[in-house]
Amino acid sequence: MEPVNIAILGLGTVGSGTYRVLQRNHNEISRRAGRDLKVYGAAVQHLNKKRDCDISHLKLTTDPFSLVEDPEVDIVVELIGGCTLAKALILKAIEYKKHIVTANKALIAEHGNEIFSLAEAQGVTVAFEGAVAGGIPIIKTIREGLGANRINWLAGIINGTCNYILTQMRDQKWNFNTALQSAQEKGYAESDPSFDIEGMDAAHKLAILASIAFGIPLQYSKVIREGICNLDPIDIYYASQLGYDIKHLGLAKRTDAGVELRVHPTLLPKNCLLAQVNGVMNAVAIHANAVGPTLYYGAGAGGDATASSVIADLVDVIRNMNIPAHMKVPYLAFQTKLLENLVIMPKEDIFSAYYLRLSAKDEPGILAKVTQALGKRHISIKTIMQQPAEFSHDKVPVIIITHPVKEGLLRAALDEIRVCGGIDNNIVTLRLENLILD
Amino acid sequence: MEPVNIAILGLGTVGSGTYRVLQRNHNEISRRAGRDLKVYGAAVQHLNKKRDCDISHLKLTTDPFSLVEDPEVDIVVELIGGCTLAKALILKAIEYKKHIVTANKALIAEHGNEIFSLAEAQGVTVAFEGAVAGGIPIIKTIREGLGANRINWLAGIINGTCNYILTQMRDQKWNFNTALQSAQEKGYAESDPSFDIEGMDAAHKLAILASIAFGIPLQYSKVIREGICNLDPIDIYYASQLGYDIKHLGLAKRTDAGVELRVHPTLLPKNCLLAQVNGVMNAVAIHANAVGPTLYYGAGAGGDATASSVIADLVDVIRNMNIPAHMKVPYLAFQTKLLENLVIMPKEDIFSAYYLRLSAKDEPGILAKVTQALGKRHISIKTIMQQPAEFSHDKVPVIIITHPVKEGLLRAALDEIRVCGGIDNNIVTLRLENLILD
């Protein structure tokens, strides 16, 4: 059989990792695909830039469209990133009936519904394992490995930058800025780190995971999103005293009322397996209705790690290419219609436990006002901890952990507490999840 | 298209779980398979036995061969277990050109080479995701998700009975027999528990994992196997003092000298993610050359959990059935020829760190003899801990942790130590692994 020609668009970290791994494990990969794989060419911005792979036999061009439109090319591997050029290239590739493999989480999360409709109409596959959780084969796991299940919820540490920063804040007792600087020095955070630390990257990935898990359209804009920039090391310390770690989690839950989609700092019991995931590593916990709780752990980013997923997709796409069109099982794209009872929950309807830290005047009666404001709304307190005032301070910290409560109700209680008198406006509010993983 | 007819052989825990999950999630499963799935019939030993599923619409027979030979049946799901009847049925099914899905680890581990050769010759698939690690889709992960990688090693907690017993011995400070009894009361151990506690079950599963991971024939008889029956709670306590947990691990490692295959109690650093896996849960850690360290965690046994894997296989088999024979990519069966440099290492050539507990007379000079016997063989000591003699005892425990050493050399050193005088014959010897999972 003829070799399959692939075009790699972009030779950055993931692109050069992909080419490198393809060369290193070429025979094994071709064997698994059932056909010989040939890298027909690669598109880059700068021809003479030094690359992290051996490009001596690689045909380079600065015109990615020339590869996409080339009739010799069977599969387009988009590893440029972003939503402008990458989107134009992918749409053009679909038009030219090429299959696509991408690691572009932003593009899939924000434009995936459109891309998948077009791909389905053209009978081509768009695969995106590398877009979520790096080298962990999580998309394949949800779609195929857990295909017999209905998924109840999933919770993921899916941004290595945030997880590294939080690990350092906890272990080194650093503040956020120091930890961020350390991440940047190690190459774990960009010079403009906002995409990671403000949670957009995690929200993109969560939108994708939730779509595959629940069979709903991509709804990135509805993900409730909070980053880690405002975290104070003192809360990491208090949480630890109370038996919790703070992780930046992506959560997708199916409830009777609808689907929750949220990424935010979250208190997790220290002995929860997910809380043991440190540094830049990622993990996704999935609770499904036949197998129960499961967890998948590995490198969430990096050239070779993401290449591992990109190439696994290539093998699947090539194996699928051999199937006559009328016999193909449609690649499980997203549902284009929202199933009627699966609304995405707005923020005020989210049901969660909370960690609160108030700063209260060291006077009688304040605690009573606080507990009344909560009690009258039936907000149940699990733990309350008041620390004595430090020398020369007139304010004491009061830490409260609530049982699960509707967010709208809690916000109303906090609004009332703020006007009580004697309590600072700034009340630290962090969600808490008692995930059961056994 | 015609529905696909499946026959379920055995309606025990996994069989009734499979039928139950198929009924519960029928539409979703058919959608993913691309064809309607029909349970044509089931074979059982006792027609009137109470089943853990709704059998009102299920055609039952006590003659499993009648289903296997029935031209209407497309796929045979073997959930009987064991190597006698199950083997005869599977060979007959292959002869009749039926595809097979099984959860039978013993059969695959001990007869898989033969079964796969015959299946390949007949052009049928034998799938066995449910045979290893219950509901964790580990076979699919190794074959497909990590298909772009070369696997360096894998380490698994793959027997829930052993893991439950060790967790209880550690947390409740019980001895082995008490912990075993507790496991039996909870249904986590059989009345004859030998298969689990002596390590045969883990060895079966490890042989299968290693074959898929390294592309070698199944070599169950070469797995170095030790169970947990001889573990003393005092060693769990000392290990803990030194920062280690004891788990019953299955280890498969590729080294320059060959492949190590072993299942045995193993000291693991407490902070290793694998050491956080408790109770009946399973986990497999895999280190691969592109993605690096990964870990997969979930229920290793149970009706619905294993059914999850059986049905995922059914979907794959059905999707594969649609492919014309000349276009099929051969289902990656085991290599029938051993790759020339992949010998399975004999016990004395295994390279490992060790935990040793000697019982020595409380006299001068004993330690010198011990350290000399080790030192002259260049066996490096990482830690040595001598506890004071308890009141009225004349022996003291000496605990040693070595750096990695060839087993044959260590055994020679221990033989010399035993004849030194002043040291008990019984020297507790446990292997230790410093697995790096980040």
Automatic annotation (TrEMBL), chains A, B:
Q: Which residues bind L-homoserine?
A: E190
InterPro entries linked: ACT-like_dom_sf, ACT_dom, Asp/hSer_DH_NAD-bd, HDH, HDH_cat, HDH_CS, NAD(P)-bd_dom_sf
Sorted alphabetically, which PROSITE patterns does this protein's record hold? ACT, HOMOSER_DHGENASE
Identify which residues the record assigns to the active site.
Answer: K205 (proton donor)
- CDD domains hit by this protein: ACT_HSDH-Hom
Task: Identify the cofactor(s).
Answer: a metal cation
User: What's this protein's name?
Assistant: Homoserine dehydrogenase
Q: Report the sequence similarity comment from the record.
A: Belongs to the homoserine dehydrogenase family.
Q: E.C. number, please?
A: 1.1.1.3
Tell me the leader sequence span: none
The keyword Metal-binding is annotated on this UniProt entry: yes
Per UniProt, the enzyme's principal EC class comes to: oxidoreductase
Q: Which species does this protein come from?
A: Candidatus Berkiella cookevillensis
> A GO molecular function for this record?
NADP binding
Q: Which SUPFAM superfamilies match?
A: ACT-like (SSF55021), Glyceraldehyde-3-phosphate dehydrogenase-like, C-terminal domain (SSF55347), NAD(P)-binding Rossmann-fold domains (SSF51735)
Keyword field? Amino-acid biosynthesis, Metal-binding, Methionine biosynthesis, NAD, NADP, Oxidoreductase, Threonine biosynthesis
Give me the reactions it catalyses: L-homoserine + NAD(+) = L-aspartate 4-semialdehyde + NADH + H(+)
Q: Start and end of every ACT domain?
A: 355-430
What residues does NADPH bind to? K105
Q: Where does NADP(+) bind?
A: L9, G10, L11, G12, T13, V14, G15, S16
GO biological process entries: methionine biosynthetic process; threonine biosynthetic process
Q: In which pathway does it act?
A: Amino-acid biosynthesis; L-methionine biosynthesis via de novo pathway; L-homoserine from L-aspartate: step 3/3; Amino-acid biosynthesis; L-threonine biosynthesis; L-threonine from L-aspartate: step 3/5
